[in-house]
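Message: I would love a firmer grasp of how sequence relates to backbone shape in proteins. Thank you; the sequence and its tokens follow:
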Amino acid sequence: MQKILDVFFKLRERGTTVRTEALAGLTTFLTMAYIIFVNPAILADGTGMPFQPLVTATILASVAGSLLSGLWANLPFAMAPGMGLNAMFTYMLVHQHGLPWQQALGVVFLSGVFFMVLTLVGMREKVVAAIPLGLRLSIAAGIGLLISLIGLQNLGLVVANKATLVGLGQLNVPVVLGLLGLVLMAVLEIWRVRGAVLIGILAVTFAAILLQTLGWCPGLVHAPTALVSSPANIAELAFKLDPWAVLRLSLLGAVFSFMFVDLFDSVGSIVACSYQAGMVREDGSIAGVDRLLQADAAATIAGTMLGVSTTTTYIESGSGIAVGGRTGLTAVFTALCFLLALPFTPLVGAVPSFATAPALVMVGAYMFRNIRAIDFSDLTVGVPAFVTIVLTPLTCSISTGLGFGFLAYILINLGGGYGRRIHPVMWVIGLLAFLDLLVRARG
């Protein structure tokens, strides 16, 4: 069996083992397992979609997407219904446009179909190749800051502040435990201990359980109501989408917006994690990106069939890559973890957010380290890169940061007399970015 896996996934060629891939897959799963509960909560918010079937559908969509990534693309990227895209589904399509959720799924389905067409004609690969190196590195750095911000918010160290937007939270027991977990992860990583991130997550969880058991800090970990529960039937959601009703001019903008956000969310995540995994060739191209993009588009289409919003490549894949995941076997193991979670969703929910939050901060640190390769003295690249890095976390949107960064690159090079540097595809990207920002600004 080991030989079959070695040949199929090219384990030896990429310097990894089945054990390392399994550990990486489990780590990725733990850092993104929150989607099992968060996605249904967002999608069910006033849409009429049933919550419990959404839990099952979310898990199945994550399994399907991750298997596509692992088996078709042989890359360590996990997929699941995308954060931000699920909010667009609920608050833009259902609340703002007044669409029934069946038609909203139709919008997402059409965006996935158009996305697949762009992939099959090779347009998405050309998009990745057209982005200058400095901007690509800034994408990774910006997403790293965003992931770190999410982690610090989940930890409770960074909180909302009306005067300054964000501020320092209370240094309570969960926050201190999370920070100690971050230190532990970093120290283990310095000593090159395999699975440092996963060890940190489990250590914080067990420490919280111990403190609660001793009666010193009650309420740190919520005990599951049951260890095993039957998965809810998804018959109320599966194949209920209605794409034909949304084939009208007034909704083409919505279809375009979903396609655009999915495009740059997935491209941003792929570029960022690819640098971290050492998958970027000398010419700047990414090994296996064509198949991964095909898998991403297929996952979106499959997800709408199951009854969830856009399924996309997850930036949390970086946590598994940090552990050593280098092949599609990592994604397969992540898919298996999601599948095994179906009857154990109460147990998965017992891992507190302050235990997984440090892992996101570590991933952010990994992604930020390549910033040293950006030539900030060259303002034609330095300023657009800076705009991308800053706006990605400040707007809490990968696509927004990328959109402004791309537009800044085009306008600054054009104004500085370097218009010939701009790749023809970048002009198309800039136009799409401008139209998307315009549509979203108008609400």
